[in-house]
Amino acid sequence: SQNQCLILEYLRLVLFGCSAAAQVKTSRETKGQFLSVNMAFSVGVMSAMYLTKGITGAHLNPAVTLSFCVLGQVPWGRLLPYCLSQLLGAYVASGLVYLVYYDAIMAFSGGVLTVYGPNETASIFATYPSEYMSLGGSFLDQVMGTGMLMLCILCLGEKRNTPAPSELIPAIVAVIVLGISMSMSANCGAAINPARDLGPRLFTLTAGWGTEVFTCYNYWFWVPLVAPLIGGVLGSCMYLIFIHWHLPDHDPPENLPTISTLSEKMETFMFLISEICEKIHILFFI
């Protein structure tokens, strides 16, 4: 079913990304760097899209699903099932990452699972703001990141513009996610995805990190839940207003010939010039 595929696509996405985060964190960056996590999440996006795009559309993100519903590309009845399936997939994937890296996490943290401090491990799973970030700055960060994501992906299938080949869209989306992660993750971790953040956060709540994962940083957890939804819709509206509504009609009028070669264009141009000259001659000299 579609819901099973949604769970599977999120398993791949979060498994790649959070596994890389666990490896980098617990090795103290001796077995990878921050870029490793960004690249791993991007590979997870690409593989999940190739795996399930033909069945679910591979939204991978409740903000994307909501935006497509607003645009009329996805029925509203699919919004809640899609989001719940994405959330469940992220939760299960976080549990698998925890099992695989359990020994490394315990060795790194000394058996104390915390959100704060040099040996914190909660950021392996969910995103948290840098200490210098204000609430307003965090919200804007997530709105901007998700808005950029929608602006970039909506044009990929636009036939009236320069559409990407369908078989390359997963790879292109992965590069887009990589670019956003590399340029906009210092502030808040570039969640830009409510399910990617809430699913792992719920897992850490139940796996021993406790309620601190929700109460820390003045109850910051709601920012990566709400801001991406708003950012996705805003980005979609900007695409409609500034791009989509200004594109020419895809199909030329039936009464105009289709001109495909340079020679045909020149012949048509010269014919029109001759017709204009003839009309001018008739008008002024006859």
From TrEMBL:
Q: Which residues cross the membrane?
A: 34-52, 88-112, 132-156, 168-192, 219-242
Provide the catalytic activity annotation: urea(in) = urea(out); glycerol(in) = glycerol(out); H2O(in) = H2O(out)
Which is an annotated Pfam family here? MIP
Can you cite an annotated GO cellular component?
basolateral plasma membrane
| Its membrane topology | Multi-pass membrane protein
The protein's matches in InterPro entries, at most eight in alphabetical order, are given as: Aquaporin-like (IPR023271), MIP (IPR000425), MIP/Aquaporin (IPR050363), MIP_CS (IPR022357)
Q: Which family does the UniProt entry place this protein in? A: Belongs to the MIP/aquaporin (TC 1.A.8) family.
Q: Where in the cell is it found?
A: Membrane
Record's protein name: Aquaporin-10-like
Keyword line:
Membrane, Transmembrane, Transmembrane helix, Transport
Query: In this entry, which stretches build a coiled coil?
Result: none
Q: Which PANTHER family match?
A: AQUAPORIN 10 (PTHR43829:SF20), AQUAPORIN OR AQUAGLYCEROPORIN RELATED (PTHR43829)
Q: Supply the source organism for this entry.
A: Echeneis naucrates
> A Gene Ontology MF term for this entry?
glycerol channel activity
The record lists the lineage as:
Eukaryota, Metazoa, Chordata, Craniata, Vertebrata
Chief subcellular location equals membrane
